[in-house]
Amino acid sequence: MWKTALFLIFTLVTVPVITYMYDEPLSGLQAETLCTLLWVYGIAALLCFVVSAITKNYSQVDKLWSIIPIPYVWIMAYYSDFAPRINVIAVLVTLWGIRLTYNFGRRGGYSWKFWTGDEDYRWSLLRAKPGFEQEWKWILFNLLFISAYQMGLILMITLPTLKSMGSTVPLNVWDYLLAGIILLLIVVEFIADEQQYNYQEAKHKKIKAGEELDDYYKVGFTHKGLWAHMRHPNYAAEQGIWIVLYFFSVIATGHWINWSIAGSLLLVLLFKGSSDFSESITKEKYPLYGRYIREVGRFIPFKRKFKAAKTD
After folding, report:
1. Which segments of the chain have a pLDDT < 50?
2. What CA–CA distance (Å, rounded) separates 117 from 120?
């Protein structure tokens, strides 16, 4: 995991620099706005590290993942004097954030003691793996990857908004088309999360009541609805939202490639690594998951539909 984390941290530093070198420099307004955003990022990342180190709950970044992009985009809207295109982006990100915050909250992610709440089970499993035997190694991992990298990535995925600032291209039909696609992806993400939440809630309710699980719940993991066609439909929609958001900067600049693409590219890398780790855990827990991997595409439904009734 150290190698993966170091690679991701390396890309977070190098990819934006390389892409920036081959693009137009920031305007004065964009540079001023970015300076404010970096201050917010630095304070948020430092707080996540300090709170997680004190409380031993390493899901502090998870609590902010769906929240902090909202002030980021509205800061950019403010600096742009609430330009129409930036307002559209800010409203879309706000809707995305409200939905995702609701989903995280109902799963126990938040508490009135803001530093508590359920911790992502993967952090404890990761810490038990070779490479984190010594405390200082985990502290360094928490600082560089969990806090600094992930919070930095959250900022970067919003930066197509910054690139769109100061554009002379008026809001047009292409902007509305992108907005419609993002709204559709938010709905897809909502449906996927609902299907997963309902399945797991019902399964654990039966287990807690001492009821025998039927074949549907014996599978152990969500495998119907969107999940019969993609192993991670929620992750697919999440990546799609930020990739589509990048194209607002394409409309604003008239160029297909600009430095703000780095955020969505790095997000795809993160979800690849995150899903690899999650699937390795799930495969150990549920015998049918190996066949599910073979039969169902990870983010794209290019394979056949999964049928749990089949034997492995």
Report:
1. 311-312
2. 10
